[in-house]
Amino acid sequence: MFKKIFSSIVACFSFWKGFIVADNKGKFLKDNSSSLMLQLIVILATFLSIFILYSALKPAVRGACRVILQSDDDLMSVFRGRVVGVEAKKVIKGTTLREVKSIGSLKANDEVVLKVELPTAKIQDIKFKEGSFVNKGDELIVFEDDYYRSETARLEAQYQLRKAEFERAKRLYDQKAGSQKTYDEAIAQMNEAKAQLDGAKFQLSKTVIKAPFDGIIGIMKVSKGSIVQQHTELVNIVDSSIVKVEFMVAVKYIEDIAVGQDVDIAVDAFKDRVFSGVVDAIDSEVDVKNHSILVRAVIPNQSGVLKHGMFANVKLVTGEKSDAILIDEDALDRDGAIEFVWCIDEKGRAYRKRVLTGAKDANGIEILDGLKEGDIVVVAGQLKLTDGVPTKILNKKEIDGASDNSESDDKNESSSEESNAEDSDNDSEGKKDEQKDEADSDNEEKNSDNAQEQKTKDDEEASPKEEAVQ
Predict the structure, then answer these.
(1) Which domain holds residue 389?
(2) Which CATH number characterizes residue 380's domain?
(3) pTM beyond 0.90, yes or no
(4) Mean pLDDT over all residues of the chain?
(5) 287-295, Cβ contacts within 8 angstroms, sequence gap of 24 or more
């Protein structure tokens, strides 16, 4: 194999040597076309080998250089020639809210456009003040009803006639003096007259438009005295005591959303206010075009500041995580789609660390991967940093103070635990002393009792001897 490589190299040098000394270079290339192709293949293979070798050794060389530079402080100071001042903060553990953000539109609780239901009508009276509150059942618009009243009266008289004819036919039929046909015709004519009368009364009722629910009535689109056709829009009524916000949520969050979850919305008209509500309903199907599902929430609106048709920024709270790794929002930087932070190692050198972020709220940004509690990240001065550059933390006292506070808290906890342990030991020793004193007192009582008994026995033995002497 090595002989083939060596021969190829010799052939390569021979080819280019002949090419240089040849008088007619075109003829030389034509006569040695096969050798030319071989030379091109060799050149391409050489460049490809160099590229592969460079790609393979680049991380190793970079790592070796970093180790060498970090292992020698004096060499790094000479190499860098500068110390960068930065502000930093420690990575902490805290509580973060799981949130889903979206954009939605506000809709009134109830909203209707009042229209003309008669074929043709003339507005006789308008009984409301535009923009005012109306109650359900209030008369709003009255049309001229002379024709409908006269038609109702005519059909009422016709119905009474058909009813009388039916009663007469029924008596004759009951007396066997009338035919079944006459009786059936009388019933049908009476029912027809009754239906026509009901239709006329229904049309008459349409000459007065009443409020279908409580709400704010809008501005009249036509004037009093106007002749309007059927389905002409007259005025809107909106019930905004409760507003509904409808927004889309990505399919990947379906498992996290549920009816009853808290929702916060903000609108451009009231940038400093947040309106809260709850999820009211979730759609039964997913939109196949944008792979999201429709969610509806209800927001109390007793003040009436939220209006139908407004756009809102929606924040849906899906849960809470108590032991999340959090960093300040200023610490996070991006390079395209890559998110990273600048960290400070134990020797005060900066290095870039890629991270995977999660939820974001007022407490900070959650880090799912890449950092741990206690790491120091740069929050100001990132633009001046490069990998391995020495840094000076300008707010070091703040960081040390935070760590001292945590250590003092730990010490206080340990000292309290020790004092509690000492108190318990003292209590146990006190109890032991009390038990010992009780035992000593019991022994003394027993000894005194034994001495008394012994004395009594001695007296009893001495009394017979005295009697005998006497």
Answers:
(1) 84-91+328-399
(2) 2.40.420.20
(3) no
(4) 79
(5) 287/248, 290/248, 291/250, 291/251, 292/248, 292/249, 292/250, 292/251, 293/248, 293/249, 293/251, 293/254, 294/246, 294/247, 294/248, 295/246, 295/247, 295/248, 295/249, 295/257
